[in-house]
Amino acid sequence: MTSRCDNRIWNPPVGKCLVNVAKNKRAYQGSSRYRDSGADLAVNGLTVENGRCSQTQTTNQWWFVDLGANFTVREIQIYHHDDQNTLLNAEVRVGQEAGSEITQNTLVGRVTDVSSNPVRITLNGNVEGRFVSVDHTGSSVSLILCEVQIFGDLLGDPCDNGCVVPRSLANGRYGRYVRSSINYRTIDPGSCFTDIHLSVLCNPDNSLIGSYYYTCDQTTGKFDYRNTGHREMLSDCGSSCPRPQINPNVLYFVGENNDPIGDRTAFNQAEEIYSKCEDPRYQLHVGLNRRRCQRGTWTPGVWTGSAPRCDISQLHMDITPTTSLTISPSGQFVLVTPIDEVTISCRNRFNSAQLSWDTRIRKNGEDTQGELSDDTSVFRLVIINPTAEDNGIYTCLSSGLSHSINVTFEDNRCSRPDIFPNIIAHVGVGEDTTTIENRQSFMGGETITFRCEDVRYQILDGPIHIQCIDGEWTERAPRCETSWLQVGVDNTILKTVSPDGTYIVYPIVSSIYINCQLRTGGRIGNSATITTNSTTQPSQRAYIAGKLKRLRLRNPTSGNDGTYTCETGSQRHSIKIKFQDIRCPAPENVLNGRWAYLRAYGNTLNEHAYILNEKVTLQCNPGYHASSNQESRCNYQGQWSPPLSSCTAN
């Protein structure tokens, strides 16, 4: 079946007619032959018969257009000059890259026949992209384009014969009138609407602002606002301002909390929205970056100012290193100090050629001491140990072009917290800690861990950890209070205390005791209890004049880890205990020698085991010697360190 597109309607209908999505979009080219031969002339809607053409010089013969969003491109038509050599063998590409990177995009055609005008390139695979380029680099003549028309669909459009329903409606819904019913059938936002009129229905007690219906133009797949021709003008229900127009590359935030605008369609009186470019390194914000909703609640509200846009600058500014770099909702570059060195650079994004000799970077309008690279492709400004005094607007100027970025250096360091008596402080958390020593400043995100000097009878009053956030500690440093009770561990010679105050015990006997006593030396009542993780344990008073309450643990393992609390009357004290059974494997018999081993004092483990810090010595027979070290010790990983040796003949 054959269909003909008459007056924007297929006859017979086969779907919607594609429209030229490149008309009046931003276009760029590598060079311009004349002052009035710029890139925009190729997308102004005027073909070769009645319009001027864009024209490059005989170098840097490339051109591309920014469609402003991702499209599924179906066909490209190029109207060319009478001199056919100005287009012959040119490459046409579609993709996500712009400027000097356009060669990375998908090659969709090479112009080998210019006998027809326009030249048509049909994309059978429906290539997706935002940038469409024509590249004539390598030719000896200029690239002349009188008009480039690009036909495609906005990516994500689910409709073939209808319109996509607008974003969700605050205080209302969309519907389609059903003649046989007094009700409207609800239409979900984002769905495909194939009828003509989409109704706007407000909830009770909410007044309609704007039109009560949209008209779906099924040939273009776009909604008209009450047939006025204004695209995407959304109605509203009972709020002051509708969703503002959002141009390509612009990001909107709502209020001082900088909440993303998301799918919001309605805004209250006096609400403010802020805007920035997606990538301010090469996108230039044009217009006000703050707009305010004005007028009353039940009349259509208006936004102050016009919708800002983000133009693509030919200059690209960057900052390194990026490890401590963020971009605020206002588009400001924020770097966290201290940083030894920061480089602000500038290059020509759309031209691989060198920068001009007069390129410079200014700070707040004053020249800086930057320098051009040897190959003149990049201009660099190096800032040593930047501080708040280096904050400002940095502007790159080159051959009449300019681009600016706003840079702020934030010092988020914290000064040394108060370290009170009987407190031991470590920097870090867990096993990855170091002693605080004499450090006077701390980076943002660093954590300090506190414990008391003697956890057996000192109580930490305050947080175990504090963290440096935005130049301030999350909490005050703790103190150590002295308890009337003392809780300890006997029958083990290996005990350490971790940075967070955990008592780490390495058992070397079959039984150990958790002891509780009064620090005054008095008798402890028989009613005193020892609990583990709030569970009372069967403890008993020791024979030492009733001054000791004792809990016996047989062959303790990690299953006995926990918080042990002694309580008598109104007095109580707790310590955290962790049991780590570290044992090294027995050395195998050594040829031409033997192992000498002296059991550590107190090691009564049975069956015998080699425990932490115990040492073995290699004794070789006459005529033989140790291949490496002669002594090895059992380390915290349960391994011999250094590794065990062997006996080698002299």
TrEMBL record:
<feature type="disulfide bond">
    <location>
        <begin position="620"/>
        <end position="647"/>
    </location>
</feature>
<dbReference type="InterPro" id="IPR051941">
    <property type="entry name" value="BG_Antigen-Binding_Lectin"/>
</dbReference>
<comment type="subunit">
    <text>Homotrimer.</text>
</comment>
<feature type="domain" description="Sushi">
    <location>
        <begin position="582"/>
        <end position="649"/>
    </location>
</feature>
<dbReference type="InterPro" id="IPR013783">
    <property type="entry name" value="Ig-like_fold"/>
</dbReference>
<dbReference type="Pfam" id="PF00084">
    <property type="entry name" value="Sushi"/>
</dbReference>
<dbReference type="InterPro" id="IPR000436">
    <property type="entry name" value="Sushi_SCR_CCP_dom"/>
</dbReference>
<keyword id="KW-0768">Sushi</keyword>
<feature type="domain" description="Sushi">
    <location>
        <begin position="239"/>
        <end position="312"/>
    </location>
</feature>
<dbReference type="Pfam" id="PF22633">
    <property type="entry name" value="F5_F8_type_C_2"/>
</dbReference>
<keyword id="KW-0106">Calcium</keyword>
<dbReference type="GO" id="GO:0046872">
    <property type="term" value="F:metal ion binding"/>
</dbReference>
<protein>
    <submittedName>
        <fullName>Putative pentraxin fusion protein-like</fullName>
    </submittedName>
</protein>
<dbReference type="InterPro" id="IPR008979">
    <property type="entry name" value="Galactose-bd-like_sf"/>
</dbReference>
<dbReference type="InterPro" id="IPR003599">
    <property type="entry name" value="Ig_sub"/>
</dbReference>
<dbReference type="InterPro" id="IPR006585">
    <property type="entry name" value="FTP1"/>
</dbReference>
<keyword id="KW-0479">Metal-binding</keyword>
<comment type="function">
    <text>Acts as a defensive agent. Recognizes blood group fucosylated oligosaccharides including A, B, H and Lewis B-type antigens. Does not recognize Lewis A antigen and has low affinity for monovalent haptens.</text>
</comment>
<dbReference type="GO" id="GO:0010185">
    <property type="term" value="P:regulation of cellular defense response"/>
</dbReference>
<keyword id="KW-1015">Disulfide bond</keyword>
<dbReference type="InterPro" id="IPR007110">
    <property type="entry name" value="Ig-like_dom"/>
</dbReference>
<feature type="domain" description="Ig-like">
    <location>
        <begin position="321"/>
        <end position="408"/>
    </location>
</feature>
<dbReference type="InterPro" id="IPR035976">
    <property type="entry name" value="Sushi/SCR/CCP_sf"/>
</dbReference>
<dbReference type="GO" id="GO:0042806">
    <property type="term" value="F:fucose binding"/>
</dbReference>
<comment type="similarity">
    <text>Belongs to the fucolectin family.</text>
</comment>
<dbReference type="GO" id="GO:0001868">
    <property type="term" value="P:regulation of complement activation, lectin pathway"/>
</dbReference>
<feature type="domain" description="Ig-like">
    <location>
        <begin position="421"/>
        <end position="576"/>
    </location>
</feature>
<keyword id="KW-0430">Lectin</keyword>
<feature type="domain" description="Sushi">
    <location>
        <begin position="412"/>
        <end position="482"/>
    </location>
</feature>
<dbReference type="InterPro" id="IPR036179">
    <property type="entry name" value="Ig-like_dom_sf"/>
</dbReference>
